[in-house]
Amino acid sequence: MNALQQAKASVNELTDLLELARKAREAFAGRNLSQGYRPDRTQAVMAGKGMVHVIDSTSGRCLGFRRTPKEAAWLQQALENGTQTQAHA
Prior knowledge:
The protein has two helices and three strands. By secondary structure, it is an alpha+beta fold. It has two domains: 35 residues; 40 residues, no CATH class.
């Protein structure tokens, strides 16, 4: 197999890999949109210096974290109102 044939095979493999990655992104986006989790009640918990966790009061699951209590309160409001979709952003 000469260099030109190897290059062509590599390009074909890369094309197939890019197609698989595109399909995976589409599947993840569809799954992520369908999972609308909205907590009823949240609680801010100080987790150290400069770290406040926002947790779901019923399950104890950490929904996000912020550096200040003020930012954590904003995140709590957004999560309870359903306006925040990604807590860790």
